[in-house]
Design brief:
Layout (H helix, E strand, L loop, with lengths): L2 H24 L10 E4 L10 E4 L9 H18 L3 E4 L21 H11 L3 E11 L5 E10 L5 E10 L3 H13 L5 H9 L1 H13 L3
Parallel strand pairs: 2-3, 2-4
Antiparallel strand pairs: 1-6, 4-5, 5-6
Helix pairs in contact: 2-6, 5-6
């Protein structure tokens, strides 16, 4: 065989392998195993959304520290998966505003959305409800997330995710998330399974990857 042809084939093979590796590394959380669900409104694409406010999560038995960590995790996850400008909204900014409707009606009070939007110049609000939480082993966290358009005060996109570290399918999804984040050794991976904050980061990544 012609040595030049052999050399070219080797070079092409190496280049193809490098491209494949780059493609895998660039997918980020897209390489994760999804365990959540999402639904968009029929007119979702018609909304011009750039600036999105991230509300403090609501839920029973959720400490202020965990709520803040979850809000920051949601902001980071959506920032990595979308082109939105994510603006965290603190509890102090909501003191004079009624809280989002905690009932499962499919919408948040439009007056709340418009008031928050007026203050921060937002196009949409990201509202998270913690519907299930267990801080001890096996850690469990359930989230319902709504993207609410300021223009109408209606939910244009919503997602649900249930994370149960005691479930085998969830464990496999967490492992794929750890691999996408290049989490190190066995000890660090085991810590992820015991930490509500880490599980909150995983749940946020699961939700964001579906948008």
């Amino acid at each position: 065989m012609n040595p030049t042809m052999t050399s070219n084939r080797v070079a092409l093979s190496v280049a193809a392998s490098m491209l494949a590796l780059c493609a895998c590394s660039s997918t980020g959380t897209k390489a994760m195993v999804p365990i959540g669900t999402a639904r968009a409104s029929a007119d979702f694409a018609s909304y011009d959304v750039h600036r999105v406010g991230v509300l403090p999560p609501r839920g029973d038995d959720v400490s202020d520290d965990l709520a803040e960590a979850l809000r920051d995790a949601m902001r980071a996850a959506f920032a990595s998966e979308t082109s939105y400008e994510l603006i965290p909204i603190g509890a102090s900014e909501l003191e004079s505003i009624s809280a989002p409707d905690s009932t499962r009606t499919g919408r948040t009070d439009p007056h709340t959305v418009l008031e928050v939007a007026r203050r921060a110049g937002l196009d949409a609000i990201l509202a998270t409800r913690v519907v299930d939480f267990r801080a001890y082993e096996p850690v469990r966290l359930g989230l319902e997330v709504d993207l609410i358009a300021v223009e109408t005060g209606l939910v244009t996109w919503s997602s649900q995710v249930r994370v149960d570290v005691g479930d085998q399918a969830t464990l496999e999804a967490i492992r794929s998330w750890q691999e996408s984040r290049r989490v190190g050794g066995a000890n660090e991976r085991a810590i992820d399974l015991l930490s509500p904050r880490r599980i909150a980061e995983f749940a946020a990544a699961q939700v964001a990857m579906l948008l």
